[in-house]
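User: Can you fold this complex?
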Amino acid sequence: MKVITANRLLDGEVVWLGAEDLWVDALIEAKMFDGKEATTAALAVAAQAVADQKIVGPYDMDVTIDEDGIVPVRLRERIRAAGPTTHPQFRKQAASVRV
Amino acid sequence: MYRYDEFDHSFVTQRTEQFKDQVRRRLAGELSEDEFKPLRLMNGLYLQLHAYMLRVAIPYGTLNGRQMRKLAHIARTYDRGYGHFTTRQNIQFNWPKLEDTPAILEELAEVEMHAIQTSGNCIRNVTADHFAGAAADEIADPRPYAEILRQWSSLHPEFSFLPRKFKIAITGAPNDRAAVQVHDIGLQLTRNEAGEVGFEVFVGGGLGRTPMIGRKVRDFLPEEDLLAYSEAILRVYNRYGRRDNKYKARIKILVHETGLEELKADIEAEFEKIRHGVLRLPDEEVRRIEAYFAPPPLEVGSDLSADVEARRETDAAFAQFLAHNLNPHRVPGYTSVTLSMKPIGGIPGDASDDQMDVIADLAEQFGHDEIRISHEQNVILPHVKLSDLPVLFDKLVAAGIAEGNAGLITDIIACPGMDYCALATARSIPVAQRISERFGAAERQAEIGELKIKISGCINACGHHHVGHIGILGLEKKGEEFYQITLGGSANENASIGEIVGRGFSSEEVVDAVEKLVDTYMGLRTGKDETFLEAYRRVGDEPFKETLYGAA
Amino acid sequence: MTTIFKDGMFQEESWTRVEPEADLPQNRHILVPVATFLAHANALKNRGNFGVEVAPPDKVEELAAHLDELPLISVVFPSFADGRAFSAARILREQMAYKGDIRATGSYILDQVPLARRCGVSSFEIVKPEVLKALKAGEWPEVTKYLQPVGTVHEIPEGTRPWARRSVRELPVAAE
Ligand code: HEM
Ligand code: SF4
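Assistant: Here's the predicted assembly.
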């Protein structure tokens, strides 16, 4: 399974593509894509968001599901989703704002 | 320190305006990200793992209280309350908003600071010995030359699109504290037989994927030739440095592939063509710039007084601080004090907004308003009266920057690693924190003595692991963090690149591995005055291999 | 046709690039590689209507013996990240005293135009529409205070620093 992630242009915040093509800033709200076709279509949505000055640097990443919700496969993406492991006070789930 | 005149103010203000306009064009959709990226990078604005990151230059590591307070203000107002001092005498802010960056740069310009050339394939912030202008062993203050180089390299029309980044470091003392031999150009101030000041010149040092120690191209470069000779090196590099492979694009590869003698001949030939030209430094002008760096008026004082000595007897933390965090000053009665940005278990190089404010206050109160940032990610007050040490120490304790560990095993250099960096293959900071906790006991650290651990989160080597006495490189193996250890590196005047000791260690194992290395050293050293590095150089890596991997 | 920017003016010119080893076309303005020029220097000089294109890693020094008979030398930016053309132009102007037209060609970006001008480039072949648009709008994105003296563009020395200059373009009331 894949989700699409990027940074919001204005403030640089990490975001994921969620329902209704909104960019959400909690991984738990991200929409999951199964298969190549769905991922390609989602990346096209992302490309449009880049063109619309909403986000920068979109890419897809692998995730799995467990009882906690969506879990990125790579450590890098887990840290990116949660915030620096060294600064628990900046953990990402603290605020939930949509683009 | 150097003060901007109207010309410099106008220069930085215009550059800020230019960037402001670029941000405006980006937000208005006139510039795409692809077009904007090189422009923002030229102003030190990265997009990192979590957010934008702004890298601000602290030229040759020198700043004053007002500037430090401004950094605190930026951390508080536009960021999340802290900044990270780097090995290149820069400070990084990890959470700025793109829309705020023009305002940040305007605020910086108010105090004569900027982010020009903190990234990109250009000549980067020129770094210098952090004890410059104060150290007892200094031949001459390197900062006037660093300032001249900084000016000449700023927005250079010919050298802003080099094959790769280009780093210059300069030291004024025979004890090299600026790691000049691992820079693209390393300058070591020296005197010739006539007593004139000049430079020993090294070219082609660098870390990264292919670490190399710089090669000497000049035993003595006269002062007046500094710019002409630098321009000659840069022109040869700009023309002949490789551009087909970014991992082979640094000048070190050109030195390596062309051969030292041939490259030296190229540089000298180029230098001959321009040495009598407009870049020749007139003596009056060097002296004029030097005057900016004149030491503050310091009255010769006396040695540690009886009551300071008395406190040393009874206060172990204070004694530890005195033993490790002072560097001999050239004026009797004074010392250069290292404020440790390495609290036990803390994040190397991070300073909170409040800490920065405290440092500014203390510099004004006790340090003639001078502050230095070291490439070892600490802060220095270069001119402190010995008699002020007890009061100063108490205030440092209150601010959490009084650890007496400068040069010891917990004075670890670490890059941001995977907690912040988009290029990382593993985390560095948590490893530094765990090592720091393991060895944090004051007596244990002191007993071990000088030992430099340096940690990078990927092969780019921002944490200088190649030149750590113990170097740790974080890699990724099958999705897990995994750490490779090198031994015997050094960045001083006897620079060397560390050797990989053997297969790497998991995150759980790596701190134990370091401990085994340290215990082995303790067991085989000839005495307390044989440091880890000296012992390693004497016995080689066998005993260390054996302790880690068992007998071969 | 491509647009050439020179001395503040825009003009349309047509230049044919001759591949290495190819025959020289008649009746056209041609740009030839350095090697081609050196192989046919006399023929080309007799023919006229040509310029020499210096593409990295060509060395401008190879043209030393011919400079007086070369009205146009172009210096190529294979990509904006490749800054060798800056050195080529400066060497031509400052070390070889070339007096003819030095033309920037290739993939340079707008922000490089003022830098190239300072290095001695005197005309620009413009292939990027955004560069053309910006130059037509009068944009010249640069800091008008310089910290490096260059040899051939007229600039005004400032203060006591021998390396400090300001631009003649600088208005007395520049945004300061
Ligand atoms: C977080 C964002 C950073 C990025 C994206 C980054 C990127 C890089 C890259 C790509 C290199 C390799 C250059 C080459 O070999 O050509 C490098 C080298 C280096 N960086 Fe960083 N870096 C970052 C942060 C830092 C920090 C925080 C420091 C200081 C602690 C630093 C100091 C250095 C040093 C000293 C080198 C080695 C220079 C050499 O190769 O000679 N960098 N960096
Ligand atoms: S060494 Fe690697 S992980 Fe560390 S800061 Fe540099 S690029 Fe990032």
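The interface with chain C takes residues 5, 7-11, 13-15, 17-18, 21, 35, 38-39, 121, 151-152, 154-162, 227, 235, 238-240, 243, 273-274, 277-282, 284-285, 288 of chain B (CB under 8 Å). The mean pLDDT of chain B is 95.
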